[in-house]
Structure formats: structure tokens, C-alpha cells
Model the fold of this input.
Amino acid sequence: MKKSVPQRVFSAVLITLISVSVMFPLAWMAIAGFKGKTEVLRSPFQFFPDMWRWDNYSAILADPQFLRAMGITVVGALIFTALSLTVNTLAAYAFARLEFTGKRFWWVYCLTPMFIPAMAILLTSFMVVSKLGMLDTLAVLIIPGAASSAQMFFIRQFYLGFPMAVEEAALVDGATRWQIFVRVFLPQSAAPFVVMGIASYLAYWNAYVWPVLTITDPDLTQIMQFLGNFRSDRGNDWGLLMAGSTLASLPTIALLLVFQRFIVNGVRISGIK
Amino acid sequence: MTALDSRVAVPADPAPDGVAQRDRRRLLARHRRDNRTAYLMIAPMVVLLSIFVVWPLIYSVYLSTFKISFYEEPEFVGLDFYQYVLDSPRFWESIWVGLYYALLTVPTGIVIALLLASFIKTLSRRAAAYMKTTVYLPAVVSTVVASVLFVFMYQDEGVINWMLGLLNSGPVNWLNDPGYALPAIAVPGIWLSFGITTLILLAGLLDIPENYYESAQLDGAGFFQRLFRITIPLLKNVLLYLFVTGFTLAIQLFELPLIMTNGGPVDATTTPNLYIFNSFRDLTPYATSFSLTASLMLFVVLGAISLVIFRLVNSDKAIDG
Done:
């Protein structure tokens, strides 16, 4: 569909407005990374530094711990994302498409954890993981949070919208539920997987309280932990924190650029589309 | 909790009357096979949740019936702490703050995201790719950094008051005025989360077959008719998800008010979790037991309200896409 000139102008204006409101705080963060220790906090508000200094960025990049923390966090986040997508998608398919005894009970059982405030179980889940000997391993960061009621719920809602016809046809042809799940449902799941996968990845990446509680091994220090320590070791240096946060957001942005293409018009199963 | 699973997809089994015995047996056999498959599929999730969420929760409930202090042996007190929490006006005030915040952010966030997603859908491939990345960018910033950023923007001589000055009004003391503080926190709250909401709604919109809109247009349906008759009913599954998760996240808000206002002024931004956190830091004895009990009460409130949302949104049959 060809667009008229006013429509194109309207689109361009809207894109610009949204970009500015989204980018302004981010640009401020990146530029604050060039500021001196007290300059960041200065009032009145000032966008650009008096003098562009690379100290903050070079200080962080020169710290071998920074790159190690980035590396170990990327690895952890990727495993975490893969594991949680697997666990939650399997359950989501069963709840969306299969009839089984006790389904209502297990549905409530798997959904209710969504409403449990993290605060209510922070202390006791720490006791559980220390009893299991998981402290100071990558597993303590990956396994406890992998089953996510919210993610399972989202993928189930998505699967509910799939047309029944194809599945019935496949069943008549003698396909098993596993075959249908793998050959019909999984190939159609790119968009929800990308959306939920990015959310999982970010949840892991931005986690702070849990790693601080469970990880003391410097080799396993997570990136947010590193940034927190880095700042407090150097007496609340906000310029450094901004520079570190800017650098730490780069891998995530790169990932987003790669995967956004999967959120597109899907080819729907069945002849609907 | 019937509302929770009223939207379960039931395979269209043939009517039982007039079905030959052989067919019935085959159906039963298939059902048994579904049972095994289903349990295998939910097993990993059930096991993980049991160990890392349900068991800690039960243990928390157990601990909440004890007085715990660092100096004495734990003492069984039954439901005393629940009584204290229920009698604490500050606990209830924090629940209202949480609800007000949810009301400010969840519907607004979803409407903004729906408008943005509809807009992105009309764009060319390249512009859409750019927008899909751009709207998500705020989410890569950690909450701590976002809080600090917005505190600077809200300063007396910050960029927001500077813009108000251009319109010849202000300056407003955003974070120190009880009336403005919570809405002021809602802005970064929405800013941080609207990206993922937009992508989710975009994925949902792209899933609606285009010919629905084409035939509606042929029938002369206007923009709002298409929105309310096609888009919203077909996005119902996704919208239910967004309302429920948006609400649970909003009422558990913690880091933004902690860093931006520390609950002030006069508790206007003390959300439930911040109240719990502050009572944990309190120097009063038994702070641990009290905050633990308060967080369990929050779970009850949250579950109850979420159930209402489920019933409201899921009240009638949704449509299969």
C-alpha cells in the first residue's frame, strides 16, 4: 500500500518524537560517562561536559574484572534464557492444548508463583540454595529462576490462539503430541520466543540482589555486581557508573538488533493467512 | 478458581452418542496417552517451582509464626504478627500507594504500547526494524541508572522544569510534593517497561490476519470500529497477560521510589515492598518476622486482585484467531 505525502510526513514526525524521548536519557547516560566525579551531579542541569574526558571509559575497560564479568554474565544469561524457554514452553503447550487429569490443579499451581512477592521468599530461597550446596556456582543464578509462571502464561496465551484445525488434521494422520509440538508449534513460535527470550536475558543481566547474596567468588562476579562494587570502591563516582552502564548495555543492544527481525508477520499455519 | 482455566482449548471430540465402541476405546487410549505426555511436559516446571518457590513459601509461612531475633531463641507466637500487620495503618497506606501506582502506569502503558505497535505495523520494513529496536532501548538500562537519570531531570533546575519554563509555568518541586511525587515516579516506570509491552502487542497484532481488516474496511467500518470489534477482541489473550503481569509488577515496585524519594514525602511513595524493606531495616526487635509477615500478606492481596482481573477480562469466551 503506497502512502500519501501527509502520511509519510506524519510518520516521520512521530518517529522523530519517539526517538528523541527514548534516546535523550540514554544519550545523557553515555555522555555523563565523559564527566568528572562531581560534574555529573551539578545543578543546574548541563548536557555536555566542560571537557570530554575518556578516563571513566578507559578505567573500566582497563580493569580485567570488567571483561571477565561481562563474559561470565553473557554466558549465564544465554544458558538461563535457553533453559527457561525450554521449561516454560513445554508446560505452556501442555496447558494450552492437552487435556489431562488434575489439569486445573496444576494450572493454578504453576500460575500462582507469579503473585508471590520476591521479598516473601528471598530469605527462605537463600536457605534452600545454601542447603543444596549451590552457593558460588553458576547454577544458583540459572536454575532457581528458570521456571517462570509469567513466561509460561504468555506462551500459553499465544498457543491458545493457534487454530485447532491443523492439530486435528495431524492427529488424524497419526502424529503424536510431541511431533505436533515440535513440527507445528515450535516453528511458529519465533516471535513469542524472541520477546520472552529478551525479557529473560535482561532479567538475568540486570539482577543485582540475588547475585550479591549468592556469589562471592570473584571469578563468577556478575556485571551489575561489578558495577555496584566499582562505584562504591571509588566513593560513589557517578561518572564511572554511567560509563560502566553504557558499556554494559552494548551487548544487549547488539542482541536486540539481531533478533528484532523475528518479530514480523508470521506465516500462520492453516490456510487462514 | 474456575475463571483461570475457562479459556482452555478443548479438542473437538465427536459427540459420544452413536459412536461405535471401537471409536470410544480409541479416544480413551488417546486420552491416556495425553496424560502421560502432559505430565512429562509440565514436570520440569513443577519440579523447579516446587523446590525454589513453593517450598520457600511454605517455609516462610512457617517462620512467620515465630518471633525471630538475633539474641533469643525463636518463640512460637502463632498468628500474632498477622494481627500486627493488619492493624498497621502504614501497611494499608502502602497498599493504596501500590494500587494508585498500578492505576497510573498499567492502563497508560498498555494504551501507549498499543498505539505504538499499531503505528509500527504501518511502517516500511526498515523503519519498523529501527522502531522495534528503539522502543526497547530503555529496557536495557538498569533501574538504578534510570532512577538516577530521572532524579537529575526532575531537579529544580533540571531539564523538565526548564521545558516548563519555556511554557511560562513551573518550576514544580516534582519529587518533594506529595501530590506530584508518585506520578513523577510513574514516568520512568512507564519509560522502562513500554518497550517490551509494545513488542508483545506488535507480535499479537501481526498475528491477526490482514483480511479481517480488509473485509471490515469493505463493510465501511471506521478506525474505532475496527479497533473495538477486531483488534481488541483478538488481542484478548495477550491483553489479559499484559494486565495481570503489569499489575503484579507495578504493585511490587521497589527500586524507583527507594532511590528517587526513599518513600517520601510523607510516605506518598512508600510502595508495599518499600514499606516491607524499611520495616526490615527498622531497629525494632522482630523486624525480620514483621517484614516477612507483611510480604506474605502482600501475596494474599496481590493474588486476590489478580483473580478479579482474570474474571473481568476472561468473563466471556474469547475468539480463536
Observations:
- DSSP finds 13 helices and two strands in chain B.
